[in-house]
Amino acid sequence: MSLLKSHYSTKVAPALKASLGKKNIHAVPKMEKVTLNVGLGSGLKDSQFQETVAKSLQRISGQKPVLTKARKSIAAFKIRQGMPIGIKVTLRGPRMYDFVEKLVAVTFPRVRDFRGIDRKSVDQSGNFNYGFKEHIAFPEISSDEVERLHGLQVTITTSAKTREDGIALFEALGFPFKAT
After folding, report:
1. Which keywords describe this protein according to UniProt (predicted)?
2. Which of 76, 109, 127, 174 is most buried, judged by most C-beta within 10 A?
């Protein structure tokens, strides 16, 4: 069992149960999945760029990424239906906890000019979204072997019902929010 999962079940969940006034431990918000997404954008037609993004996502997550395809054609963006427009990975279970632990302890401190996470990163349903401008903040990617930088969107889906419950969960897990 990962350190973060054991920390959640022994310390975070009971503390959240008391602070949020929940009667049942199963009503306490918990993480359900982590989704890493890269929109191909300018690299839509470049198959080598798609390969590079897929390899970097695989290194970061430890799991094989999946191509996301356009649902409908949009002429203004030169996109046809079924054309690959992004690459994503969904993490659940032990890999999810390992990734979040690495995200908080290693990746956020490595981001250039990092001043903390804005509380607006948690939506009304208690889910967390954060966009990295450069994927080199992750420890698996060494900056000397990178040919082309790309961004990366991290979404953590929770069972929280409100924004306040989501923020309480992420603060208890050690996410570095900005002081208000």
Report:
1. Ribonucleoprotein, Ribosomal protein, RNA-binding, rRNA-binding, tRNA-binding
2. 127
